[in-house]
Amino acid sequence: MSMKSESKTVVVLGGGVLGISTALSLVKLGAQVTLVTEGELCSGASGRSLSWLNSAGERSPAYHALRMAGVDRYRTLFAQDPTREWLRFDGGLCWSTNDTTSTLARHAYEKAHGYDSLLVNSHNVATVDGQVNASALAEVAIANPGEGWVSLPELINFLAQQFRALGGELIEYAGKAAVLTEAGRATGIRCHTGDFHADAVLVACGPWTPAVVAPLGVHIPDGSPVSMLVISKPTPQRIKVVMNTPRAAVRPNPGNTVAVDHDWYEKEIAQQTDGTYTIAQSVVDKLMQEAGALIAGHDNLQAQSWKLGPKPIPGDGEPVLGELTKVPGCFVAFTHSGATLALIAGELLAGEIVSGEKHPMLSTFRAERFS
């Protein structure tokens, strides 16, 4: 059955991966869509995401199912063109420092619900990725062969090209925006570019989403920390796996570079009076030293650039997705796993917006759980 809607108008607020993914899904369903973003596309949290595609570790069954559906959509995209250097499925590798018990417990949990999880050590880690420094591993590590990664700037550009080609309107540098309402229903958004009226609004502003919906009387607890993503200078060592380790999280990146993040340095980040964030070069260098130690033969990994800003995390860690009961016509997309969920969340949200029917996979992720 077709779900086309030739007359539905939608304003999407937010130029990150969730915003552009939903906007593209909406135009494919026949909606008239305007995407409005404060700056340029991918200038917020999506531009500083490690974007590791996974459902590793422990989480609720509903969240795990949604993440696995998200990975599935990326596998479909990957199958269409396996040569893309910005989307790969070469597996993941993780370990804890001198904590074999917790590593074994995580492995057992993953195996119990069918997640591809293998135990490896320094003697056989080369079968996972020969570029991993075996001496950096703990006594035991977990390899997850089904995991992958995506570089969101390239993905967002790929989706935006399709969005424009299908008639979607993109407005960048619109500044701060507010949701317009009439008789309690969302009717569009207001920004310095002007008012944009629509049948429905999607707020997908990353860590700023709770603040955007707060004036509507909707409270979404915000646990977003300030974090950093570092891109290395080009390196001849080509790791394949995503590594999540006690002192650095590392993944391959286009252009023979490496993307690095973690959280141990968060207390070193300072906010300036203009709202921007800074961190000492010495801290960045230390993170790159930790990352370089994970890669065989590369203990001098150097930073080329880095970005700092809030990382979107709802207060309870679970995604917030769907229409606000308190404000009909206003939908939200706020989640820590924006990269993994981007394609599936965009698809499901677009379906709800066009059809008016709630999707069962989003039932536990509504904002109303906080009220």
Could you give the distance between the termini? 35 Å
* CATH-level-2 architecture of the largest domain: 3-Layer(bba) Sandwich
Low-confidence stretches: none
- CATH topology value of the largest domain: FAD/NAD(P)-binding domain
Strand order of the largest sheet: 6-7-5-15-16-17-14-20
**Count of β-strands:** 22
Question: What percentage of the residues does DSSP assign to strands (E)?
Answer: 25-35%
CATH superfamily of the largest domain: FAD/NAD(P)-binding domain
Keywords: Oxidoreductase
Protein name: FAD-binding oxidoreductase
Domain FAD dependent oxidoreductase: 10-350
InterPro entries: FAD-dep_OxRdtase, FAD/NAD-bd_sf
Can you tag this structure with a few keywords?
FAD-dep_OxRdtase; 371 residues; single chain; 6-stranded mixed sheet; FAD/NAD-bd_sf; FAD-binding oxidoreductase; 25% helix; 2 domains; alpha+beta; 22 strands; FAD/NAD(P)-binding domain; D-Amino Acid Oxidase, Chain A, domain 2; oxidoreductase; 8-stranded mixed sheet
